[in-house]
Structures are given as structure tokens and as C-alpha cells.
Amino acid sequence: MTYPYDLERFVTAQAAVYESALAEIRRGAKRSHWMWFIFPQAAGLGRSPMAQHYAIVSLEEARAYLAHPVLGARLRQCVEALDALTGVTARAVFGEVDAMKLRSSLTLFREAGNDPLFGAALDRWFAGTSDAATLALIDRSS
Q1: How many angstroms separate the CA atoms of 51 and 53, rounded?
Q2: Using an 8 Å Cβ cutoff, are 28 and 92 in contact?
Q3: In Å, what is the CA distance from 56 to each residue of 10, 46, 86?
Q4: HEC profile for 58-114?
Q5: Are 134 and 107 a contacting pair, CB within 8 Å?
Q6: Are 37 and 70 in contact (CB under 8 A)?
Q7: Cα–Cα distance between 11 and 78 in angstroms, integer?
Q8: For residue 142, what pLDDT is reported?
Q9: Overall fold of domain 8-141
């Protein structure tokens, strides 16, 4: 199937690291570098070349990501793995910077779809507080 966005960039990036990324989440300790393409953010937030390459440019692209049979399933699996953790904070699991990226990603995908999983994760990990910068970018792009 052909997708209107270059979603294959995510599939390619995840190919070698997805299983280890999921294992790190399940252990409650992110140790390697995969945040950009496992929990992508809205375009305009990240400044690094990696962040820009894996940025989601619109709610439509975020919806396509969620609908992709591999990417949507993997994102949900990672959020479900987070949900299974107890006694830790997002900051403890991801570190301060990547915890902020997680909040941005959860905000983006909550706004993009009807899946309550992302809102529940925001409630659990960030006391229901959305990422204001992500909401502002989404508002400008719509």
C-alpha cells in the first residue's frame, strides 16, 4: 500500500531497534536513542536534524501514522507497555528531555485520533497536562 506521507522513514528507522526500545520501556529505563521515531513529535518542536527528519507535519500525517498497520500498532504497544509500569515517573523512565518529547507525542496522537489510550497516558504520566507547544502548532496548521 502507498501512503501519502513518507511513513517508511519510520518503518526503516524502527527496523533495527524496535524490539530493544520496547524492552527498555518494559524495564522502565530508556538507555538508547530512538525517541524521534518511536514517539514522534509535531514539526516545529525539535531543532536537531533527527527531530526535523522524523517530525510529523500535520494531524493528517499523525492520523496516517496511527492507521499504518505497523507504526500504529507499535506506537500503541509502546504506550501500553508504559501503562504496565508502576512506581516510576516519565522522567525516571526517559530522562527529563525525552519525557518532554513523550508528552508532546502523546498530545499529538491524542489530538489526531479517537483512541483513548493517548489521553489516558497523558493523565497517568503528566497529570492530564497536554503539551502547550504541540497544541499551538496543531492549531496553526489546521
Answers
A1: 6
A2: yes
A3: 11, 11, 30
A4: CHHHHHHHHHCCCHHHHHHHHHHHHHCCCCCCHHHHHCHHHHHHHHHHHHHHHHHCC
A5: yes
A6: no
A7: 15
A8: 59
A9: 1.25.40
Residue that is written with C-alpha cell 496511527 in the block: 66
Tell me if residue 35 falls in helix, strand or coil. Answer: helix
Low-confidence ranges of the chain (pLDDT < 70): 1-3, 141-142
pLDDT of residue 2: 60
- Enumerate the domain spans of the chain: 8-141
The separation between CA 11 and the C-alpha centre of its own chain, rounded to angstroms, equals 14
71 close to 107: Cβ distance less than 8 angstroms: no
Q: What is the pTM of this model?
A: 0.95
Among the listed residues 60, 61, 76, the one whose alpha carbon sits nearest the alpha carbon of residue 116: 76
Q: 75: closest CA among 11, 142, 2, 4?
A: 11
Contact 77, 22 (CB under 8 A): yes
Please give the pLDDT value at position 114. 85
Q: What is the C-alpha to C-alpha distance for residues 129 and 99, in angstroms, rounded to an integer?
A: 13
- The count of other CB atoms within 10 Å of the CB of residue 120 is 15
